[in-house]
Amino acid sequence: xxxxxxxxxxxxxxxxxxxxxxxxxxxxxxxxxxxxxxxxxxxxxxxxxxxxxxxxxxxxxxxxxxxxxxxxxxxxxxxxxxxxxxxxxxxxxxxxxxxxxxxxxxxxxxxxxxxxxxxxxxxx
Amino acid sequence: xxxxxxxxxxxxxxxxxxxxxxxxxxxxxxxxxxxxxxxxxxxxxxxxxxxxxxxxxxxxxxxxxxxxxxxxxxxxxxxxxxxxxxxxxxxxxxxxxxxxxxxxxxxxxxxxxxxxxxxxxxxxxxxxxxxxxxxxxxxxxxx
Lengths: 124, 143
What we know:
The structure holds 2 protein chains of 2 kinds.
Chain A: E1 2-9, E2 12-21, H1 23-38, E3 43-54, H2 56-71, E4 75-79, H3 83-92, E5 100-101, H4 104-112
Parallel strand pairs in A: 2-3, 3-4, 4-5
Antiparallel strand pairs in A: 1-2
Chain B: E1 2-3, E2 7-13, H1 19-32, H2 37-58, E3 66-74, E4 77-84, H3 111-119, E5 122-128, E6 132-140
Antiparallel strand pairs in B: 1-2, 2-3, 3-4, 4-6, 5-6
């Protein structure tokens, strides 16, 4: 079961996920991301603070969402990954293609200053 | 769910809504049979990927079937056996994903099987003529 709340922070569309991001949740995550990108938004932040598990199906959805935002000149960044979720990202090599930030504020600041470089902070 | 001193079993319908029940069952079985929390998470993840593949590909979404999961100790290994009666597939036909590709070129598929192989010590697929498919995965217990 997943709950996805959308918000706005500093001009960035934020998705706050709570629950399991398994294959059941992937279509819901995909729909939410598509609604945002179809509305012309290209700067998207996904907050995973409430997520204890993410499966390959949701990683694929994030990958496709990131491609859409980058093709539109923006990006999809992530923040507040738990240790386990970060391990899954690393296992998939997704830590090399996504910016993973420690907080929403840091990630939003990175949209404004994209040259700040490699984020690695863990969520406190 | 049935339980004996030797093994634990769960049978669910092939519905993505049952993945969480499968995860809870496998995590509980892994901890009960001596895996640590990290190993139990890895077994849960490999099983989740396997069952999602069965539901989405072996049966296909909308086709109803059953998934049978059995957990037991075999020597010093935690063994999870997953059986289904869906379509068979050749795991060797799925290429290993290139994890160094840039995002734009990254292949979309193959991650689930890759996770299963990376997280478990042994993964073995078998087609059972007339009886469907069997996947056996093993995780060695920490000493």
